[in-house]
TrEMBL record:
UniProt keyword Oxidoreductase, yes or no: yes
Lineage summary: Eukaryota, Viridiplantae, Streptophyta, Embryophyta, Tracheophyta
Domain of life: Eukaryota
Entry keyword set: Heme, Iron, Metal-binding, Monooxygenase, Oxidoreductase
Protein known as: Uncharacterized protein
InterPro entries reported in the protein's UniProt record: Cyt_P450, Cyt_P450_sf, Plant_Cytochrome_P450_Monoox
Co-factor requirement: heme
Pfam families: p450 (PF00067)
Origin species: Brassica cretica
């Protein structure tokens, strides 16, 4: 039985030192196990060199062609997304204005944990965590749960074609599956966005971004907002749509 990856990397670190490189097919991966080296790598000018993400298949179809804050390469677009997150989503004033939502979510979570402490149905707790305690549209809830699960699985380093592009010549079932999942998630987020757009009196993160869209429609496009919704999961919950399903 193969050891977990982190233990295998620990063995390599003990043998080769606190920093070493590996070849994942055509990609080079650098492994750092020293805190001081990590700090050195992500401070000064080195952080710019190491800040970009690899252009993987899942980020292409689920991350709107590598344009979300978690998948975009370092550059003007990523810096603008960071500015939006810092000023419009995660600023002190913005977080304070949505304090009641976080308090309500913590209260709900504690109630669910207390109620389900002896339950083995983790899937049910997960679904309720996104859809509230009273789920009317269970089919939609299950669909969303599966989407989140599939994206999590596809986002892990399990697509050999990301590292051996030549394999694409032999067909790519994985790519078709990721495309379908990305399309389904986009449709879900678009429905959520449209519901928030119709809620003129809503006071949510999404409605705030939609108000900015009216001022700068080209910059705050639907794709940009949906990418931010996906990257900051709490934004999805701030719209009451999910609790009304």
């Amino acid at each position: 039985m193969k050891p977990p990856v982190h233990r295998l990397l620990q063995r390599f670190s003990e043998k080769y030192g606190p920093i070493f490189s590996l070849r994942y097919g055509s990609s080079r991966v650098v492994v750092i196990t020293s805190l001081s080296l990590v700090q050195e790598s992500f401070t000064g000018t080195n952080d710019v060199i190491l800040s970009s993400r690899p252009l993987q298949l899942t980020a292409k179809y689920v991350g709107y062609n590598h344009t979300t804050v978690g998948t975009a390469p370092y550059g003007d677009h990523w810096r603008n997304l960071r500015r939006i997150c810092s000023l419009e989503i995660l600023s002190s004033n913005r977080l304070t204005s949505f304090l009641y939502i976080r308090k309500d979510e913590i209260r709900r979570m504690l109630k669910r944990l207390s109620r389900d402490a002896h339950s083995d149905d983790d899937g049910s707790r997960f679904t309720h965590g996104y859809y509230g305690d009273d789920v009317d549209n269970k089919e939609e809830a299950e669909r969303f749960k599966k989407l989140v699960h599939d994206i999590s699985m596809y986002s892990s380093a399990n697509n050999s074609r990301d590292y051996l592009p030549v394999l694409k010549l032999f067909g790519n079932k994985f790519e078709k599956e990721v495309m379908a999942t990305g399309k389904s998630m986009d449709e879900f987020l678009q429905r959520l966005l449209d519901d928030c757009r119709r809620d003129k009196d809503g006071n949510t993160m999404v409605t705030h971004l939609l108000s900015l869209q009216q001022q700068e429609p080209d910059y705050y496009s639907d794709i940009t907002i949906k990418g931010l919704m996906m990257s900051t999961r709490s934004a999805a919950k701030t719209c009451e749509y999910l609790d009304q399903l």
